[in-house]
Design brief:
The protein is α/β, with parallel strands linked by helices. It is built from 17 helices and 17 strands. The strands form five sheets. The protein has a seven-stranded mixed β-sheet, covered by helices on one side. The protein has a four-stranded antiparallel β-sheet with strand order 1-8-7-6. Helix 1 runs antiparallel to helix 2 and helix 15 packs parallel to helix 17.
């Protein structure tokens, strides 16, 4: 009977002094390892062997004595739903990749102007937040175990691989910073993501003529930088918008809906639509252009408002042209009952006028705001503020009244830069004459812009504008004398 290998291996240690004994030990150990490897290959499936090896590699590569490192796994899905934090981290991490990072993924999408890049997981991304060192890495497929059911796990792995090459992310840091990371760093990553997403989002303008809202891209080129508006008034508007955005908790504390109303009034052509576009771009808000003539009942008005989104601007233009929102003492005078939409009652015999009422609009401006969304801006525009019912214009409904008047000297410099590339601090020889005339002549920015477009030569365009302003000034003097 042959001596078992293990017994031979152990007995060899008793005669360890000779060279032959050492050789026997080596031969016995080699034979034992070969048999063990054969047994492992035969008894343990390949997938399980790969998993064990990856875990051993991960353990020995990251092991340190007295290791106090905390690791947070951020998977793409949580209980079958998309993990918002995973998406935030994917957008945040490229902002932390330095020029020394040597392994990147790059791409180009049709909707993006710039080349996109991201880390591919072959290097750890190191971030620093208020003196805390944090490390990000991609979790390999074998490390993800979100689903207990094998079929559900396999299905979701295939779904994840369809959209992403990686399955999750891991954030590591020293345990002593746990509270700060959880309470400050992760919310910071989420806030950066929201800002990135807002910057990449294409703003929409929604209109309602008949039926549901119809959407299209907001392509209006106006911005606060290009707006021909008095610089002091421009600053007041921007400061008011900033104050509104940061006061969410204050509105909640005092029990007020988080909304703000603006009335833009002034002659046609003074830039009301351009100001709305500039506000939308500054806030990154979509615009809902509500045409009141398309609304025939209070319930329809409420339905339209329920379909608007948070973080949006709702615009009601030329409100003075709508008979329902004129001063109530003048309603009978302006109301044309033939323009109402008559409908048959349930019996099909009696015609009943169907229209929304002033009280319905006021309810929309007041109590119903708290039920139908937050972070809303509502803007009314009018050419004749005196025709609007004062009840609609009080604070709480229209909080800020902005008068857009005729073009004056300070705002003219912006137009000259926009149309003729003349810097605002550059004193063109014709500016003094033009600005002096603008103080005497009532002319809108739209009219002045038209004259600036008539020539690519700044001197020719400005001379043409001066001639127009002089003729307008003379005509004004003649009319004054005649009256």
């Amino acid at each position: 009977m042959k001596t078992p290998i293990v017994n031979r291996f152990s007995s060899s240690f008793t005669n360890i002094g000779s060279a032959s004994s050492w050789f026997e030990i080596y031969a016995a150990f080699s034979t034992f390892m070969m048999l063990l490897r054969t047994a492992i290959n035969d008894l343990i499936p390949l997938g399980l062997r790969t998993f064990i090896i990856s875990k051993l590699k991960y353990f020995f590569s990251d092991y340190h004595p007295n290791n106090n490192t905390v690791s947070l796994q951020i998977h793409q899905f949580w209980d079958g739903n998309a993990n918002h934090l995973f998406n935030a981290a994917k957008e945040y991490l490229p902002t932390k990749i330095s020029h020394t990072y040597k392994s990147l993924k790059v791409g180009k999408l049709s909707k993006n102007k710039n080349i996109l890049f991201a880390f591919d997981g072959k290097q750890v991304v190191v971030d620093e937040f208020e003196g805390i060192k944090l490390k990000w890495k991609i979790i390999e497929d074998s490390e993800v175990d979100d689903f207990d059911n094998p079929k559900e796990k396999a299905f979701n792995r295939r779904r994840l691989k369809r959209y992403y090459e990686e399955d999750g992310l891991m954030l590591s840091f020293d345990e002593k910073h746990r509270d700060k990371v959880m309470n400050e760093y992760i919310p910071y990553v989420l806030s950066v993501y929201e800002n990135i997403k807002a910057g990449q989002r294409t703003l929409k303008i929604h209109s309602m003529q008949t039926g549901p809202w119809q959407s299209s891209d907001l392509t209006h080129p106006a911005s606060f930088e290009s707006l021909a508006l008095d610089p002091d008034l421009k600053k007041v508007i921007i400061d008011d918008l900033d104050r509104f955005l940061r006061r969410k908790e204050l509105y909640k504390k005092v029990g007020k809906p988080w909304k703000r109303g603006y009335l833009l009034y002034g002659p046609p052509g003074t830039g009301k639509s351009s100001l709305i576009a500039a506000m939308a771009k500054y806030l990154k808000f979509d615009v809902y252009d509500l045409e009141l003539s398309a609304i025939y009942s209070n319930s329809e008005l409420m339905r339209a408002m329920r379909e608007t989104s948070n973080s949006s601007i709702i615009v009601i233009e030329d409100i003075d042209c709508n008979t329902e929102v004129l001063h109530r003492s003048k309603q009978d005078k302006f109301l044309d009952k033939d323009q109402l939409d008559p409908v048959l009652d349930l019996k099909g015999t009696k015609k009943v006028p169907k229209r929304f009422t002033m009280s319905g609009l006021l309810n929309y401006m007041d109590g119903l705001w708290s039920s139908y969304g937050d972070e809303r801006i509502v803007i009314f525009t009018t050419n004749h503020r005196d025709k609007i019912d004062p009840a609609l214009l009080r604070p709480g409904r229209m909080d800020m009244h902005i008068h857009l008047s005729f073009l004056k000297a300070k705002a003219f410099r912006t137009l000259a830069y926009n149309y003729l590339d003349i810097e605002g601090n550059h004193h063109h020889p014709l500016f003094d004459q033009i600005e002096e005339l603008l103080e005497k002549v009532e002319v809108t920015p739209a009219v002045v812009a038209e004259y600036l477009l008539r020539s690519e030569d700044p001197d020719v365009a400005l001379q043409g504008l001066i001639q127009f302003l002089q003729e307008t000034d003379v005509s004004k003097e003649i009319m004054t004398v005649a009256t």
